[in-house]
Amino acid sequence: MASSRYRGGVITAASALAAVIPLDVPVGWGGDQDRDVNMVHALLVLGGIPLLLFLLITVAVYVPSLVRGDSITPGQPPVENQWLGGPRTGTAELKGPESEDAEAGGASGRW
Amino acid sequence: MLRPVAQVAAGESPAGRLSPRFSANDKVALDETIRKAERVSRVEFSVFVGHAQGDPRAYALSLHGSLVAPARSILILVDPGARALEVVTGGHVRRTLRDTEVELAVAQMQTLFAEGDLVGGLRRGIQMLAEHARAPQTLHAEHP
Fold first, then answer.
1. By residue range, what is the domain housing residue A43?
2. What does the pLDDT read at residue B125?
3. Domains detected in chain B
4. Strand runs labelled E in chain B
5. Contact list, A91 vs chain B (CB under 8 Å)
6. Chain B residue at shortest CA distance from A93
7. pLDDT tens digits, one per residue of B74-104
8. CA triplet A61, A62, A67: central angle to 5 degrees?
9. Residue A83 counted as domain residue
10. How many whole angstroms separate alpha carbon B73 and alpha carbon B64?
11. Does residue A89 lie in a domain region?
12. Tens of pLDDT along A74-109?
């Protein structure tokens, strides 16, 4: 008895909701309104947009590092010879200690 | 004849891996530090970061000899792979910068390198070397 009254109430509420909110079939769902899908458009939407997002994210991640001059290769970067305030010829033509430099001193360290 | 060079020992630090590549900001900061140091001490500073071929000390001496004015130059060599640090001072520089003072700078640099701070260690070392290499002011030199 109670359950049939409850069921009747639910149906009444659903009818009232249907009267207030139009529950039409969405556009494009009907079989008679099927349209041909343009393959190029589909490829652009399904492939182009993800690819574009991938490229944008990649650029957003790597460009700041490249601008700063940091290495973007994984792992420990190889040791490159770098001079600061030294000769511009590099280390290709190294000379031995000169006579004037025979008094060279300094200190060594390891860490 | 080359004089014996003091060895400064440093504790092993497995965490102190240095990145041998400088960013643009690092290079600007180091260049500025070198310029200031040269202005203060009237000594040329050169920094080489890279792979030392063979014995690091001998290689550092070769690099020092290739500078424009070795006698008036200080060369700092850092080999991050071998964890080697060498400071070579020219004969003229040694008149004001003693090897014991260089050892102090080397010890300070080692500490910062062991913490993984290559740029900070270089900057601190250059500053210390410049402060010690500064010629002492002579009082009343201009007014006899």
1. 35-71
2. 95
3. 48-133 (3.10.310.50)
4. 6-8, 44-49, 73-79, 84-89
5. 48, 50, 63, 66
6. B66
7. 999 999 988 999 999 999 999 999 999 999 9
8. 125
9. no
10. 8
11. no
12. 665 556 788 888 665 555 555 555 554 568 888 888
Instruction: Give Cβ neighbours of residue A30 (< 8 Å, ≥ 6 apart).
Output: none
**B79 by DSSP, 3-state: which?**
strand
Contacts with A, B 15-54, CB within 8 Å: 16-17, 19-25, 27, 30-31, 34, 38, 44-51
**How many domains are contained in chain A?**
1
Residue A109 lies in a domain: no
Task: Give the type of residue at A27.
Answer: V
Distances (CA, A) of A83 to A15, A86, B22: 83, 5, 11
Query: For A108, phi and psi rounded to 5 degrees?
Result: -120, 155
User: What three-state secondary structure class fits B64?
Assistant: helix
> What is the spatial distance between Cα A79 and Cα A82, in angstroms, rounded to a whole number?
9
Residue A47 lies in a domain: yes
Beta-strand runs (E) in chain A: 82-84, 105-110
Which residues are CB-neighbours of A102 under 8 A, at least 6 positions away? B1, B2, B91
The ipTM value here is 0.71
d(CA B106, CA B10) in angstroms, rounded, equals 10
Q: What percent of chain B clears pLDDT 70, i.e. is strictly above it?
A: 81
